[in-house]
Amino acid sequence: MTTPADVHDVRDPEQPGRLLLTERDALIPLLRGRAEEDFALPVRACPGWSVRSVLAHCSAALLRVVENRFEEGAFSPESNDRDIAERDGWSNARVVDELERGMTEAGPVIARAGGKLDGLALGEWVHAGDVREAFGEPGAYGGAGLPDALALLARITRERGHVPLHADLDDLDEPLRLGESGGERPPGRFIGDGPTLVRLYTGRPVDGAPAFELVGVEAKDLNIFG
Fold first, then answer.
1. C or N: which end of the chain has fewer Cβ atoms within 10 Å?
2. Residue 71 has pLDDT above 50, yes or no
3. Chain CA centroid to CA 139, Å
4. Which helix (H) or strand (E) holds 179?
5. pLDDT tens digits, residue range 153-182?
6. Is 39 helix (H, G, I), strand (E, B) or coil?
7. What is the pLDDT of residues 31-49, one digit of tens each?
8. Helix, strand or coil, per DSSP, at residue 190
9. Which residues sit opposite 165 in a β-bridge?
10. Radius of gyration for the alpha carbons in the chain, expressed in angstroms and rounded
């Protein structure tokens, strides 16, 4: 798996949708093969939420995009809780069906949004990793979508003027540069694998992850959702 050393800031409008489709093809069959009780498993990265809660949140968010429903407060914690509650009477299969539709249809809408919704696609992919971890499946925050996820992460952190970081990743041939690049702050350095870098940037637990090195910046400063 390789990407250029510098992911150019020119936006690839197809990238978020491509990430969603890649994850759809891996996640949906996994979900359809799980026992009903597995949907009640707790998700460590989202305290108080079960696998079903995470899936309901993801499917609702994607359907908002597909149906262009962005009322005031959309995607707020309160809105997320309402979305989950509205699906309480649904079967697990119906939640998975809605998620599949959202992952299939949201990409073109995100592409036309000019970048405003790109972070949502990355967040959906991260939540899929949360579910994999809850199931005890290998490859949480990795897999075939990792190159696009890392490229999105790098661009989003640069656009937000995030703390600069140079990442030497086991998964890539060249370093990945994240965060602002104006030279005002010396970059930190990460040495490790891509899934662990994703965990750090999304506030996911890293205990049990492969060994890594982080120098010149604290983990709490990397969290884009913090």
1. C
2. yes
3. 14
4. none
5. 999 999 999 999 999 999 888 999 999 877
6. helix
7. 999 999 999 999 999 999 9
8. strand
9. 178, 188
10. 17
